[in-house]
């Protein structure tokens, strides 16, 4: 099959990344058990194959290395009041010293100095209105007291296409968290990791498949639409991450033993690629990444990607189009719709093998 790619010099338009998705394809709850979710295998060439997440021990090889994101989602959505007016806030970045950047519904009506009450003894002052459209809020609570108040009053920041009365319940606090969740700071889950269970990890270990972790705190920018006609003009949101010396060494060891590097989720992929040299060597990294992967990008370090199905016209759809070729990912998504796969954060997944022809110069 001939794969159409888009080079950095070729015309690119946001409409290239559009597709029709029936509303009934959007998953509102995860599959139970998690590893019973469906998995669409997209090999480097040839046809697609319908499998299950539980089939991963058969699909992967001894020596392969899975790279998971161990970020932990915080209950970042808060309902409060400014006087008589209701205010909904989503925290998205800890600035330290009790200050947070946040998005707010009706932010234009808020003024610097306004006091927002979220609960008894849990308030914030609007410290700054930012040109990007978000706010800086200042909470006057010690760190542990703030965490306790957030756990008591906050809700999980579910994606905008999942509607819940009151913004989400107790079940979502469990469902919207991976079993690897350790480092608090994300306001969106690394959703490909939601499919894994301890039983599946044990089966992978018996197969000789290893795994490691990194941390990339997923921000709300993952849901922001691309508003420009040419996606190359889009400014990618920054996300903070850390890839440790130990993880870099595990990736290098797998490479030496001819194991494949399999990113679990686009967040893991973006951080591994950020930390990789031109030659593909992955080094320790700590800091922000704005890596925006579009068709024409030359992948340096990963061999496969396990990921959910993404929104039309989104940066994440552009990433998987860079990996497979645009026409092939559209064919895969059309197959998934026809076969009744479940889409988005709580939906099913696909396992994509990187074809060498896609490795065009950026």
Detailed description of the structure:
With 362 residues, the protein is α/β, with parallel strands linked by helices. Helix content is 21%, strand content 26%. It contains eight helices and 17 strands. The strands form three sheets. The protein has a nine-stranded mixed β-sheet with strand order 2-1-17-16-14-3-12-13-15, with helices on one face. A six-stranded antiparallel β-sheet has the order 5-6-7-10-9-8, with helices on one face. It has a two-stranded parallel ribbon with strand order 4-11. It is globular.
Q: Helices, strands, pairings?
A:
Blueprint lengths: L37 E5 L6 E4 L3 H4 L5 E5 L1 E3 L3 E6 L2 E12 L2 E6 L10 E5 L2 E8 L5 E5 L3 H11 L16 H6 L7 E4 L11 H10 L2 E7 L22 E5 L1 H12 L4 E4 L1 H10 L9 E5 L14 E5 L6 H10 L1 H13 L10 E5 L9
Parallel strand pairs: 1-17, 3-12, 3-14, 4-11, 14-16
Antiparallel strand pairs: 1-2, 5-6, 6-7, 7-10, 8-9, 9-10, 12-13, 13-15, 16-17
């Amino acid at each position: 099959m001939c794969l159409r790619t888009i080079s950095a010099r070729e015309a690119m338009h946001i409409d290239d990344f559009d597709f029709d998705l029936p509303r009934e394809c959007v998953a509102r709850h995860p599959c139970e058990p998690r590893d019973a979710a469906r998995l669409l295998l997209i090999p480097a060439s040839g046809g697609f194959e319908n499998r299950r997440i539980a089939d991963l021990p058969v699909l992967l090889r001894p020596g392969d290395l899975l790279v998971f994101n161990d970020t932990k989602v915080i209950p970042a959505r808060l309902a409060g009041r400014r006087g008589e007016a209701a205010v909904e806030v989503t925290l998205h970045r800890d600035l330290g010293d009790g200050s947070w950047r946040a998005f707010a519904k009706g932010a234009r009506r808020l003024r610097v100095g306004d006091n927002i009450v979220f609960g008894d003894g849990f308030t914030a002052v609007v410290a700054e209105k930012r040109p990007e459209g978000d706010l800086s809020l200042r909470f006057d609570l010690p760190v542990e007291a703030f965490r306790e108040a957030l756990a008591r009053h906050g809700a999980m920041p579910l994606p905008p296409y999942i509607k819940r009365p009151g913004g989400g319940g107790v079940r979502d606090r469990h469902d919207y968290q991976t079993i690897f969740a350790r480092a608090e700071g994300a306001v969106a889950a690394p959703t490909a990791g939601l499919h894994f269970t301890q039983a599946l990890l044990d089966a992978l270990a018996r197969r000789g498949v290893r795994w490691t972790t990194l941390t990339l705190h997923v921000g709300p920018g993952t849901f922001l639409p691309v508003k420009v006609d040419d996606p190359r003009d889009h400014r990618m949101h920054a996300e903070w991450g850390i890839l440790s010396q130990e993880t870099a060494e595990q990736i290098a060891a797998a490479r030496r033993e001819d194991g494949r590097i399999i990113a679990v989720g686009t967040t893991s992929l973006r951080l591994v690629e950020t930390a990789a040299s031109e030659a593909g060597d992955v080094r320790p990294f700590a800091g922000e990444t704005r890596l925006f992967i579009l068709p024409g990008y030359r992948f340096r370090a990963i061999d496969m990607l396990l990921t959910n199905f993404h929104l039309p016209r989104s940066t994440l759809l552009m990433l998987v189009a860079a990996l497979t070729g645009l026409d092939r990912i559209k064919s895969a998504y059309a197959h998934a719709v026809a076969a009744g796969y479940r889409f988005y954060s709580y939906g099913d997944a696909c396992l994509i093998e990187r074809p060498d022809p896609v490795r065009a110069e950026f």
